[in-house]
Amino acid sequence: MDIFIRNKRYTGPVQSLVLDWAGTAVDHGCLGPAAVFVDVFEERDVAVTIEQARRFMGLAKKDHIRGMCSIPEIAAAWEGAHGRRPDERDINALYDRTATLMVETIASHSDPIDGVTDTISEIRKMGIKIGSSTGYVKEMMDVLVPVAREKGYHPDAIVCSSDVPAGRPYPWMCLANAAMLETYPMEAMVKIGDTVADIEEGLNAGMWTVGITETGNEMGLTREEVAALDPADLDNRLTAIKHRFEETGVHYVLKRTADILPVLDEINLRLRSGELPL
């Protein structure tokens, strides 16, 4: 394609998407990572709740553990079990154990979320490339990627937190995707994810952002558990998640990644008029 020179507004179409993995493209409910964090702290005689384990989801895994250790209740429980607050040595040990357990279990949470593979196929027919970013590190992705490929999901670019200087909310994974997908300018890209950190990552990269509510970390339920919820309860949960995303500055909020096609049409219209994702 002709290179875009930033001396005017970009008015072309969306060229690439960057999808998160767990909770957005695979692993309905983002169950795999959350369970591992609970187990790792439990091994060190520190009980954490699933809500605490999910609070920093989307960050690089060591940053996630560092965040959990900063929660006052967890820090106090650690001091009660070990006689001191957790320090960087503890964070490194927790991370090493987390990495081991995630490598062992990640293949069990590799099923594409309903509708994702068919939707990605339609998007590729539109000439749009598919990238990805994740808080997982290379050793974890080395297990997840081939299993997900066998099940029909494989992005054109795969960037993980260990490939860049820092994970979310820094924009480096999205910028690396742009280079690998040869996409420019950044407003020609859309970031899709199920955490606040995903949205912040996309905003910091200058991309359009889409937050996923029903299948992701913020909901934290399997497909069957979601279906079993009272409709009013489900609606209240979705509304609360949407509100959190909107406070972050997200451009669009959807229940599922499979709902993205009409949003791409709308973004194309906004781009055509020279609008930027601010």
What does this molecule look like?
The protein has 278 residues and is of the alpha/beta class. The protein folds into two domains: 16-30 and 110-272, 3-Layer(aba) Sandwich (Rossmann fold), CATH 3.40.50; 32-108, Orthogonal Bundle (DNA polymerase, domain 1), CATH 1.10.150. It has helices at 31-43, 50-54, 61-70, 72-82, 88-105, 116-125, 138-150, 172-181, 196-204, 223-228, 231-248, 261-272, and strands spanning 16-19, 129-134, 159-160, 189-193, 208-212, 252-254. The protein has a six-stranded parallel β-sheet, sandwiched between helices. The longest helix has 18 residues, at 88-105. The protein is globular, with a radius of gyration of 19 Å.
Concise structural overview:
It contains twelve helices and six strands. With 278 residues, the protein is of the alpha/beta class.
How do the strands and helices of this protein lay out in sequence?
Layout: E1 16-19, H1 31-43, H2 50-54, H3 61-70, H4 72-82, H5 88-105, H6 116-125, E2 129-134, H7 138-150, E3 159-160, H8 172-181, E4 189-193, H9 196-204, E5 208-212, H10 223-228, H11 231-248, E6 252-254, H12 261-272
Parallel strand pairs: 1-2, 1-4, 2-3, 4-5, 5-6
